[in-house]
Design brief:
With 524 residues, this protein is of the alpha+beta class. Helices cover 19% and strands 40% of the residues. Helix 3 runs antiparallel to helix 4. It is flat, with a radius of gyration of 43 Å. It starts with 28 loop residues before the first strand and ends with a helix. 21% of the residues are buried.
Amino acid sequence: MITKNFGNLLFINFFLFLSFTTQLQSTEVEFFFHPNEFSLGEIAKLEVKAYGDKTFRTLKTNVNQNGVRVRYVGSGTETQIINFKVSKSQIINFYVDTEREGNFYLPEITVEYDKKKYTSPPISFKVSKKTKNSQNGFLKSFPFDFEDSISEENPEVSFHTNKSIFYKGEPIVGYFVLYYNHYRQPFLERDPNQSISFPFFLSETLRQVTVQIEREVIKNNVPKKTLVFAKEIYGLTALKSGTFLLGKTKFITGDSLRFNSLQETIETKPSKVIVLDLPNNAPSHFKGAIGNFKIYISNPPKQVHIGETAYFEIVIEGEGGHEGIYPIEILNPNIKFISQSKTKNFQQLPSGEYGFYSKVKFLYGYQVSKLEKEMIEPFKFSFFSLTEKKYNTVSVALPDFQILPKRKSSAEPISKRQNTSLQLPIFYLVLLAVLGVFCYLGIKKYKLVSETQSFVRMIESFGKKKNFFLNEFLEKKGISSNESTWLTNLLNTDTKDYIGFYKSLSKKDKTKVLKIIKQLKIKE
């Protein structure tokens, strides 16, 4: 049912609100084109919607025909809720523009859904001259804008809820709506300096949810256009019974297409709601849960030994919020509560309606102290059913599992044979380590002897050449001037113990000497 005065028709819909639509006779695929009149240099949008989740694709991404350009810009999905009944659809989006002004027909656009082809109808549209607010006509724009501003605009922002009378603890949905007359393209943003008043309510923002109401309504006996503030849709849960005004805050609004339009800040009109107390005949296990829930045990133990702990998880899930769902009180001293986890989503419900679905898990530990099975009472949970308007109690029993005798201790003395088997690997490891050290030292010593012998042979090849003569000799052998000078200065010594002399050199000097030795060998 649609209420024209308040617009309480709620559904999730990513379709643009102020659009001109043209539909095919087919009920599976529809073509929507908007606007049907726009200025040269602007663009229109073609949305192709398929109702269902079968394969949906476009056969052409770009079309240019008779001066009309159609470009594919992406696709998406949407979930639509009408009177809380849910349907899903897929959307393919195109941008449309032209090279000149005039009257045009949209080129045929063909899509494929469930292996069937669908072609757009001959949609007509008009493209006029560029807008009067273009930079070239700056001065000409003033008379037109002043003429438009003669008709006063009295915008109004109201807060709406999908229910005006409901129970304490029952989740509802709330959203803001702008009502206006003369805006060409309304601008609406919430004043960031103002908070929103939700007295005695828990509030949360619903993600990926937008709301649409009728595009034109009669409000206070005056025709008004509407715009839903889709950025903030709220899930609200009452904590107290009574009468409340919800959604008091401030919004900034104006006309984004009018050149001389001034933005204004207006206060919202709150929504009056009545929150009812639940009936008084609540069972002892009831703690405030409202909805339609079931209870079961997840991952029950199959067997456990005496003296050990059997872990099991009690799960409560169903339609409604998780407020009012708490750990179940268990009188048995051997069963202890350990931890809990809660999730709540705004989604399609198993009943086909759209609302909150919650899942709560409680982890317990059962200490088994004797071989005989202990009598454990079933676990009970109570909630108030909105569909039946009464309290219901559900229960689940702990499944049977096998109780085994106490485990034997595994700490036994290790035999001598086991000791020997453990010692042998350690002996081999030590032996390998010692051999490795000797090998390393042997290789290092062999390398030093080889380098020393090469150094002595190089000195002997110089004969009695020293100083200038040695430097000249080295340069003729291809050694650079810097290296020749460095080696000549290094060998300017009277020592005859060249082996000891080489060993006394630093690592850096040894590296340079070996490099020169290698160069002298290459030149020979």
